[in-house]
Amino acid sequence: MPSKSQPITMDAVYTAPGYLFRRMQQIAVSIFVEECSAFDLTPVQYASLVAIHTHPGIDATRLSAVIAFDRSTLGNVIERLESKALIERKPSREDKRVKLLYLSKSGAAVLRDIMPSVERAQLRMLQPLKPADRKTLLTLLTQLVDLNNEASRVPLRAEDALEHLGKQGEGALGTGVS
Amino acid sequence: MPSKSQPITMDAVYTAPGYLFRRMQQIAVSIFVEECSAFDLTPVQYASLVAIHTHPGIDATRLSAVIAFDRSTLGNVIERLESKALIERKPSREDKRVKLLYLSKSGAAVLRDIMPSVERAQLRMLQPLKPADRKTLLTLLTQLVDLNNEASRVPLRAEDALEHLGKQGEGALGTGVS
DNA sequence: TCGATATTGTAAGTATACTGTCAATCTACC
DNA sequence: GGTAGATTGACAGTATACTTACAATATCGA
């Protein structure tokens, strides 16, 4: 039967999945930034570096599909990474609209060096749970994100978003797509 | 044994809990905004309305503790709610620094009317999972958020943050703390 | 009571995150 | 081959989210 307008309490907030997701995200960012403070990289900037490392010569639009971040937002992120000299932007010869993204030497170095801190952060987020529960949570969360993919404004389009890149082969991409 | 600098792939991103939390939060907001589009309320604005409804005469600082949102951020949120005439701000007589928050008539009406849409949104977020899995995920997430409370920049200080309010008894708070 | 300390709201600055729009450019169809 | 429609990066605008700083005010200790 339909819930007949029960009184509104804080439980309406505290038990709502949306609220829990928000809280958890805030906690996760907080832990990430703390662990990685020595590198002055945000989670989004880190993810961008990984994606550019994995797909050298990717453009901003495809990058946004690969990490499921908004294209507009990514513009600023790229700007900051460039101003920190962690990446380089080169105009494409085939398409004058496109700017290709590459890791700089220092970008590659930062990415290599930050990995242990990132792993430590990821561990800390789940630390309070029992190991078995961590695994369960991750499994369910992965499923849920995947099944809800289309519901998000920027659905993840992992490797298949990069088909165009393979063609012209801007150098030695080791198309690491299994 | 320590992982000997394995090659960096996109899996370093896709399987990281932090990334999954971010994705899920984006999806959750997207669904919330879609379901509640008729009311032009964001998740944060909704949570603020609930908290002000539950604790009439609360001030901004305590509100931030009750919903675990940043105090600075909340300033803007309150401003927007006020400019939409959903809440009212009255200076406290006991403390000239403080501004007390109350729902306006139209704020109370909006809160009442939006509840079904909010519930629909919360259901949709978990919809793709089997009912048993939904419960498991919520349980684990609740635990994790609670146990990580102090790790976040703005730890939740639910009802106990409101002790001061009870004293002067700014009206009929039904201290619904079990 | 007076001075150090703390709290409150506010503001400025940075960084996501999303909505639009726009000009330049590319593609495809006719 | 020339134009309609799509794509690309950029920009403007709104809304969290956090940091630091600040003035006004409160409070507490000596």
TrEMBL record, chains A, B:
PROSITE patterns: HTH_MARR_2. This is Transcriptional regulator. GO terms for biological process: response to stress. It comes from the Bacteria. PANTHER family: TRANSCRIPTIONAL REGULATOR, TRANSCRIPTIONAL REGULATOR, MARR FAMILY. InterPro entries: HTH_MarR-typ (IPR000835), MarR/SlyA-like (IPR039422), WH-like_DNA-bd_sf (IPR036388), WH_DNA-bd_sf (IPR036390). Residues 17-146 form the HTH marR-type domain. Signal peptide: none annotated. Transmembrane segments: none annotated. SMART domains: HTH_MARR. One of its GO terms (molecular function) is DNA-binding transcription factor activity.
